[in-house]
């Protein structure tokens, strides 16, 4: 023991120094974790969740799947200002990407779902999304497809395995695989100083010095640090005098207050993920801002009451280009069928 003490002391000191050093570097930016799957996410449950994600038969009209509004073959969104669900109906909010959505402590712009599984229950029964009246109808559709029933039984155990809770558990397991590590920023943080261009480094410095990192910090630049499960909300727009507030109608959506009905939650929003942000125009909760450059102007003005020069805006945009990561290859799943009859069209 006595012999060991100095060594232990040195070790402790070293790890304290290392911790302090990591905190300094990681305070604002951090590499995106390379995996987000849980121990319970077996290949079978992930494969089932993937099928459900791509299956339009789980919508009232048989035309809308999760992938319709969260296109995994591109940015994980739909490129529209506001999404279009069954019967051409549109809602009031922009579809956020599902890529890296796992790295958030709450889901939806107003954080009204605590995790991916709870979130996935919403769209099935939202009138302007998949339009099924109640969850039992979703379960009913799945139950009519024998190979789905067998697959649910295999994954969740025999007997009444087709439930909405099991369906969203599987979807969430699949969504935990939708992550894009190894972006140029990650290589840079790992020590490859050539991974970013000069403009990107300037943009990164400006992103910190202007104050964007007050909200956009951590691996997904959304104010989330690994292990955080406390949901955090910030005020948007903060500077109501900004001319952008009226121009883009940024204050009629009351954000979190729409979900909680609490006046104190008015205009509180979750800070969104900025990974792959170049792929998910248009921007903001209402999709009213067409370009990334304009989104940066809006943020500087509404959140930090600052005007940036056009050179500075272009450096910020360059920095955001360094946030596009590696997308895992995704093959379209083969969906199980009911032999001889459709499950969507009911004939009398
Ligand atoms: C009609 C288009 C549409 C469909 C279909 C749809 N979504 Fe969404 N999704 C949206 C919109 C719009 C939002 C944001 C709504 C809000 O915040 O109020 C959203 C939010 C989300 C989020 C939260 C992301 C974040 O950053 O907060 C996840 C995860 C998600 N959807 C997954 C799914 C899954 C899984 C399905 C299928 C069960 C699905 N969506 C079906 C449009 C759609
Ligand atoms: C006080 C917190 C805060 C600060 C500071 C801040 N942001 Fe944001 N940012 C947010 C919130 C909240 C949103 C979502 C706004 C909404 O609901 O439409 C957002 C949205 C964005 C978006 C659009 C995301 C999307 O998916 O549509 C971009 C891009 C962005 N911020 C970049 C920046 C930049 C660049 C800066 C610095 C100039 C900055 N932000 C400063 C909180 C902040």
Automatic annotation (TrEMBL):
The cellular location(s) given in this protein's UniProt record come to: Periplasm
InterPro entries xrefs: Cyt_c-like_dom, Cyt_c-like_dom_sf, Cytochrome_c_Peroxidase/MauG, Di-haem_cyt_c_peroxidsae, MauG/Cytc_peroxidase
What is this protein called in UniProt? Cytochrome c551 peroxidase
- The signal peptide annotation in the UniProt record is 1-26
SUPFAM superfamilies hit by this protein: Cytochrome c
What UniProt keywords are attached to this protein's entry? Heme, Iron, Metal-binding, Oxidoreductase, Periplasm, Peroxidase, Signal
The known PTMs are summarized as:
Binds 2 heme groups per subunit.
Q: Origin organism of this chain?
A: Rubripirellula lacrimiformis
Q: Supply the gene name.
A: ccp_1
Superkingdom, according to UniProt? Answer: Bacteria
